[in-house]
Queue: 2 jobs
Job 1
Amino acid sequence: MAGKFKYGKVAVVVFITVLIWVWADLALDERYPVSGATITIAKSANPSLWVSFNDELSVSIDNIVLKGPASRIAEIKRKLRQGRKPEFDFDAAQEEMDEPGEHTLIVLPFLQKNKEIKQLGLAIESCRPETLPVNVVELVKKSLVVKCVDEDQNPVKAATVEPARVDMSVRKDWVGDARVRLTRREVEQARVGFIEKVPYIELAAGQVRWSAATVKVTMPPEEEMLQDYTITAARLSIALSPTLQGKYKVEITNLDAVMSPISVRATPEAKRAYELQPFPTITLYILDDDKNKTGEQRREVIYNFPQDYIRNGEIELKQQPVEARFKLILLSSGRPP
């Protein structure tokens, strides 16, 4: 009978071969620097705490050096090429930094505990920065007035909010209001009914906290909101570029018409703001090319309504714009262009 098949010897050979391959893979450990990683504050289970890195919700960690088998490093490189930057969540309670005050996070051991990195069979050798400041602020309940703003954060003064105040968790030194943001479409909807909105505050730039309660916002119908007014004290400015200043003077031939009363439709507040603003109520713009024209010229004046009230539809012109008639006269001290 032929020699018996030696299963034990084969198993030993296979085992040794696997060990050789594993050892060879480990022996080929690579180091790979990664930039663009971030540490982000995880949502706290305690709503009365505000955790940040010096008022920031996330910080960038550069120069993370990964070490591991070449095959694992290749997998990381593939993920990075796909735009998947490493992200690490910081849980203040888990890191035992949930007491109000200032704490210091030692970054390297924090990163080394990351489960995903471990599952990939990789290690983090070094990183920058080495430490990060962690700020934990205790928030207190305060009753805040709710103000409406438009898409550019300008006040929507005609809006009515019910209830007018909401309780929110804020810093002890908080000074300010809760806000609801209205789009133009929502402003129109609020004129025919009400819309429900959730008030918010910004603890820091980009860090929004939402109220647990909603409010109802209404707007007066446009015909009720605007009234007819006549502005009698018109103030005129003439705008010339530096090219024309000191060389030409402007002679308005129908000055009485230009300075005539201005008819507007506005809210009382918008009308008052227009009258009392430090800027002229109307402006005549003179263009550089006007110097090349002869005889009397014509141009409509511009009505300098306050921009905030224009955006909210609280003021508009209720007449045809006045057309100024003017001449450019070359001063004797000036030289022809």
Job 2
Amino acid sequence: MADEVTYQDDIVLQLRRAAVWTMMNDQRHMLDQAADEIERLRLTDAEREAVVWFAGYGCDRPLGHATTLRSLLERLK
């Protein structure tokens, strides 16, 4: 079972909350953009597992992880 993420643990939640409370539109936009970028760059559990597996074994054959790694590379462009 995965640990529950709380407000204090999650930078995205903190940025989004700060964006709601700020009175300056340029700051609000900047905070929202930062939160969006962090969410875009976060790895899913499957992506993390694939990266760890390939890093640990140095295997040059995808064996089912190719789609996951392609989606990771696409998302990080």
